[in-house]
Amino acid sequence: MAATMKQVVLAAYAQGNPKPGDFRIEEVPVPEAGECEILLKTLYIAVDPLLRFSVDETVLTGAGRMELGQPMVGPVVSEVIASSHPDYAVGDVVEGRSGWQEYAVLAPDLSDYRGPPRKLDRSLAPVSTALGVLGGPGQTAYEGIVKVGRVKAGETVVISAAAGAVGSIAGQIVKVLGGRAVGIAGGAAKCAALLDLGFDAAADYKAPDFADQLRAAMPDGAEVYLDNVGGEVTMTVLPLLKRGARMAMCGFIAYYGVGMEGPGPDRLPGFYRLIMNKGLEIRGFAGMLAGQQGLEDIARWMKEGRIRFAESVVEGIEAAPAAFSSVFSGHDHVGKLLVRVAAQG
Ligand SMILES: NC(=O)c1ccc[n+]([C@@H]2O[C@H](COP(=O)([O-])OP(=O)(O)OC[C@H]3O[C@@H](n4cnc5c(N)ncnc54)[C@H](OP(=O)(O)O)[C@@H]3O)[C@@H](O)[C@H]2O)c1
């Protein structure tokens, strides 16, 4: 094993969308595991949009802000390469939050509220899926569609950021439940990819005729809106929803980096009017509440061939800053975007 390793540290708080230059690659000694600790070799890093709350110059939530010079936090899949902890053996593959570094030491008994690293069943699916369909994004999609959206057979469900990790799974869950899935994504290629995944229709929010495309995709409106975006996309969706529609508010990526008050005109009056006139039921959720039940159902649906996982992989830890930045500035990837740091074994 190497004596030194690479890690990605935060070099500057992001002003506007994060840029690769907001991060720095550092070479540091590989840590050593002490008593009841495990040494992990990172295999995959998930470049999750929610990490943004820790690195933005303009703080939008109460999420813990990172210190400059600190290694990036966030979900990863790793292999245990040394262990003096009774529950973890060398060769186990785990999902945890040991961050953007090639190796990490963890004390499973001292884990934060998220609990100790989750041991993965490698017979179920490729281990990378623990960061996507069989991890946080899958649980989030399940929560939004099954629990908050309460989608029933025959209902139309419109999903923003549908080609992303959460949206691409959410649309497939809608199909399992017997609903009609309408996806919104940026660009014709991503819309075509949604149809390949089984969505019934798609609309390109970057096209000048987005509103027309969306109206054509759901001529009778929609009973449920799973919103990952907010902003202009949501203001186009709301007038098309049916009376009493349920809006599961999962994310608002169009506003990340904006702060608590946007720079533009105040759109809240129009928003309020639509909520009242349409009798919308709006419920936000955070924290992947679907838990184990959600993961078990999704794993079963995958086994039955009813849900496919979509993921895109970029190579090498050095690629992580650019991959993270591209989540906000635009990329061609469909499904969960991952950085492969090392091969297993
Ligand atoms: N509530 C929770 O517990 C929870 C958990 C996980 C994630 N989330 C939230 O759910 C959302 C989706 O997460 P994810 O993991 O699926 O992310 P993801 O796979 O990284 O996909 C994000 C996609 O959002 C789209 N996007 C980015 N900026 C946009 C903008 N300004 N306007 C419209 N679309 C934009 C882009 O797709 P296009 O190329 O199509 O533009 C991008 O690929 C995020 O808002 C995230 O923060 C919430």
Automatic annotation (TrEMBL):
Transmembrane domains' residue ranges: none
Alphabetically ordered keywords of this record: Oxidoreductase
Domain (Enoyl reductase (ER)): residue spans on this chain: 21-339
An example molecular function term from Gene Ontology annotations: oxidoreductase activity, acting on the CH-CH group of donors, NAD or NADP as acceptor
Pfam families per record: ADH_N_2 (PF16884), ADH_zinc_N (PF00107)
PANTHER family: PROSTAGLANDIN REDUCTASE, PROSTAGLANDIN REDUCTASE 1
Name assigned to this protein: NADP-dependent oxidoreductase
